[in-house]
Amino acid sequence: MSKTIKKLFNNKLTFKKLLEAHERASIGKKYRKEIILFEMDLETNLIKILLDLKKNKYKFGKYRQFTIYEPKERIIKSLPYKDRVVHQWYINEFIKPFF
Fold first, then answer.
1. d(Cα 37, Cα 17) in Å, to the nearest integer?
2. What is the pLDDT of residues 23-61, one digit of tens each?
3. Using CA atoms in the order 10, 51, 82, 32, what is the torsion angle rounded to 10 degrees?
4. 94, 12 Cβ separation under 8 angstroms
5. Interacting residues of 21 by C-beta distance below 8 A, sequence separation 6+
6. What is the H or E stretch that residue 87 is in?
């Protein structure tokens, strides 16, 4: 990573920004088991994500696969909730402002 981008990355990687990303990622899904478990230890989970991202040790989880039948049969794959928080943070802090 170049120095300019790395500096920008570290400036935008804050606990507050990850908390905002968590709030966006949980809209309409507050009562799902995965999100409730994440929120039970919210601060620790967000700090772990923050430290892993800063140390370049963050690894995305495995996709969960399930089938829905409305309106036709489709296979859906979704990432774990912590990865959705990281996606929300990345999209709002880097993708939207620059593009």
1. 20
2. 999 999 999 999 999 999 999 999 999 999 999 999 999
3. -120
4. yes
5. 85, 86, 88, 89, 92
6. helix 81-90
Within a 10 A sphere around the Cβ of 35, how many other Cβ atoms?
17
Structure-token pair, residue 91? 């999209």
Could you tell me if 89 and 17 are in contact, meaning their C-beta atoms sit under 8 angstroms apart? Answer: yes
15, 46 in Cβ contact below 8 A? yes
Contact call for residues 86 and 58 (beta carbons, < 8 A) = yes
Q: For residues 38 and 49, is the Cβ–Cβ distance under 8 A?
A: no
This prediction has a pTM of 0.85
Could you tell me the two tokens for 8?
Answer: 């920008």
